[in-house]
Design brief:
Radius of gyration: 22 Å
Distance between the termini: 43 Å
CATH superfamily of the largest domain: Periplasmic binding protein-like II
Largest sheet: 5 strands, mixed
Number of domains: 2
Strand content: 5-15%
CATH class of the largest domain: Alpha Beta
Structural class: alpha+beta
Number of strands: 11
CATH architecture of the largest domain: 3-Layer(aba) Sandwich
């Protein structure tokens, strides 16, 4: 775990989503009756009620509920109302709540939402205004400034450290004689995956390839550029995109990837029947997903995401897990900040949360969990592997949800044989250029 230190200077953050909040942030300075910093309105012995909303697995729910109970037992004037569920529909619900003025006081943000909710929407509190209530020195200052500060505002506190890796089924590897020390690149993926499917028509090396886990990093490895440049020009040409889509179609045609007609039934890989039966070899995923995946396949291990020898950058995603944000309109910014600080910095909370958000963001807590074997060693290993070759940070415009959805739709059209890779590349670039003209 001494490698935990390395992430402090290596993390990158994904940011995305379209502007949905023009006119939704009229409360520029938060609640007028609440101070923007220092002691909160309602601090001391006054009764305070905070709503804390999140999504995730059952393990995450149980851990957060336990932490909440501990905090309330130590702070009897504070009541924290827990609101939690699955990821599907969470963003849409949160958007509606912000627009209607009913958003929770605290919520983790998917890094995909930061650009829209925290930056363009300006709907969350600048946590620098709460320095008397947040133990900021528990976090690495350089990390916070580089990956959680936008327009000089600290928009959230990282709930964990995440990294993209290849998560593989050890029994699948044994069955198909795949060495566990295989160094993956895209050629190896194709050759080994083709052989696997020839040996067993019900087996696939991969469940699916999508925009975030394949298309964007594949193209970035070819170009060394952002998917979309800061000046809102596309960072690749038609030839590179055609190459990526041709590779994708070949992987489907040769049975390296599970047919889309099957994989699309299971947006959550852990629910995929073929995965549960051990007929899928590996998935590309973040460290924070490993515990959930192990519920079906206990014998999982991790290795580096595919990086070709001639890649201009690794494009390996490393990012903070779900930065915890505070609603700018909260009546109790100080109390919300105190709870957020305790949840993410206290040793007691760390021992409860363990790895439900991947490796904890405070180094001393991560080390204590490792020493006491309370964090899954595979999760730690995944973060360390990703940090060996982290990709360059992804800029905000490259994480725009509308652009991502456009790319995902065309990727599926190629997969279903509705467009050739060449025609699809032309259409994607054309539509992306049109969309970029409308994005502020």
């Amino acid at each position: 775990m001494n490698k935990v230190r390395t992430w402090m200077s290596a993390l990158c953050i994904l940011t995305l989503l379209a502007v949905l909040f023009s006119g939704c942030s009229s409360n520029e300075g938060g609640n007028a009756s609440a101070p923007s910093g220092g002691a909160a309105s309602g601090a001391g012995d006054a009764k305070v009620t905070l709503r804390f909303s999140w999504w995730g697995s059952e393990d995450r729910h149980k851990a957060l509920l336990e932490a909440i109970q501990l905090y309330m037992s130590e702070h009897p004037n504070v009541t924290i109302e827990a609101e939690y569920g699955g990821f599907d529909g969470y963003y849409q619900k949160l958007v509606t709540q912000f627009a209607g003025g009913t958003a929770p006081d605290l919520t983790p943000l998917s890094v995909d939402w930061i650009d829209d909710i925290a930056v363009k929407g300006d709907l969350v509190l600048d946590l620098y205004s709460q320095q008397t209530n947040i133990q900021l020195d528990a976090f690495n200052k350089e990390f916070l400034e580089k990956y959680a500060v936008y327009n000089k505002k600290l928009v959230g506190l990282p709930m964990g450290v995440n990294g993209m890796v290849a998560i593989y089924n050890q029994d699948f590897y044994k069955k198909f004689n795949i060495p566990e020390n295989t160094t993956w690149d895209w050629n190896a993926m194709y050759e080994i995956g083709k052989r696997v499917h020839q040996q067993d028509p019900n087996a696939y090396l991969l469940a699916s390839l999508d925009f975030r886990g394949f298309l964007q990093p594949y193209v970035r490895q070819k170009t060394g550029k952002q998917w979309i440049q800061d000046d809102k020009t596309i960072g690749f040409d038609e030839a590179v995109l055609t190459d990526a889509l041709t590779y994708y179609k070949k992987m489907l045609d040769e049975g390296v990837i599970q047919p889309i007609s099957e994989s699309s039934l299971y947006p959550d890989i852990s629910q995929n029947i073929a995965w549960q039966k051990g007929n899928i070899g590996l998935v590309f995923g973040l460290a924070s997903t490993i515990t959930k995946l192990k519920a079906q396949i206990p014998g999982l291990d991790v290795t580096m995401y595919p990086v070709p020898a001639d890649a201009k950058e690794s494009a390996v995603l490393v990012n903070p897990s779900n930065p915890l944000a505070i609603n700018k309109a909260t009546k109790y910014p100080g109390e919300a900040a105190k709870f957020a600080s305790w949840l993410l910095t206290s040793p007691e909370s760390a021992m409860i949360l363990r790895d439900v958000y991947s490796v904890p963001p405070v180094e001393k807590n991560a080390q204590a969990l490792a020493d006491s074997k309370k964090i899954d060693a595979t999760v730690t290993k995944a973060v360390e592997i990703a940090l060996k070759r982290p990709g360059n940070p992804i800029n905000g415009i490259s994480s725009n949800q509308e652009l991502a959805k456009l790319a995902e739709d065309i990727l599926q059209q190629v997969g279903f044989g509705q467009q050739t890779p060449a025609k699809a590349a032309q259409e994607m670039i054309k539509r992306m250029n049109e969309k970029l003209k409308t994005i502020k």
